[in-house]
């Protein structure tokens, strides 16, 4: 299913957990792995002076310097590259999310892998938080994004057990199409899950239990009509509805199912068109899950 993977890395320990998944996928699936690093942001317009994301120092960049950085990346991933049949390395200069999207348009990958941070909350380039590269790439990416934000999520057993988290939005419908395609093509299990949000919203009032029970029954009906009806002869699935804080329940459910992967929509509610947000639940799941998370935006 994935023949070409773009792995955007900071080439530091912070990206090691995402690297483990990217190299694992490339080896398991026989995919081409394109390792891409944005080495720095120009200090002024089109200046050749760049603030290096690793050293935090200003450096003058030319072709020789970029070649040196690419060689450093090659050395950093030497062990993994020794077992990677079809890998390439490229370094670029610019604003990280723009360069990653530019590279994606150029090579047309089936998947972009991102993860980790490059330093503190303020300095992070690949962090999974508001305004980050991950947010902005996920919003505009021409393909799904796989995020590995925790080291625990990198100890990955392959693709055989998938959790699809839905809120029944149109965006989730597209994410389901992708999740179902993955499950069928890889002959895996698909767990369809909806977390009923019962957090107090109106003047601190909690939802009555009778209303919770009614909404859970309605959610099961929605799952059957929107998803199960489209699965034809596919039988290797389950469906569950839990109530609680959505991102907490998704993470708990995934842990219970010992899932290899979570698939969710990029966002479920209409957000500021100019903002980078991918949705608070998705963001929290990425940061807390003990397996990789795929964001589908179209």
What is this structure's SSE topology?
Layout: E1 4-8, H1 16-29, E2 32-42, E3 49-52, E4 58-60, H2 63-76, H3 78-81, E5 87-93, H4 96-107, E6 111-114, H5 133-140, E7 145-147, E8 161-166, H6 170-185, E9 189-197, H7 209-226, E10 237-244, H8 246-257, E11 261-265, H9 280-288, E12 293-296
Parallel strand pairs: 1-2, 1-6, 2-5, 6-7, 8-9, 8-11, 9-10, 11-12
Antiparallel strand pairs: 2-3, 3-4, 7-12
Helix pairs in contact: 4-5, 8-9
Throw out a few tags for this protein:
single chain, 298 residues, alpha/beta, 2 domains, 9 helices, 36% helix
How does this model look, in words?
This protein has 298 residues and is of the alpha/beta class. The protein folds into two domains: 4-154, Rossmann fold; 161-268 and 278-293, HUPs (Rossmann fold), CATH 3.40.50. It is 36% helix and 23% strand. The protein has helices at residues 16-29, 63-76, 78-81, 96-107, 133-140, 170-185, 209-226, 246-257, 280-288; strands spanning 4-8, 32-42, 49-52, 58-60, 87-93, 111-114, 145-147, 161-166, 189-197, 237-244, 261-265, 293-296. Strands 1, 2, 3, 4, 5, 6, 7, 8, 9, 10, 11 and 12 form a twelve-stranded mixed beta sheet that branches. α9 (280-288) links the parallel β11 and β12. The longest helix has 18 residues, at 209-226.
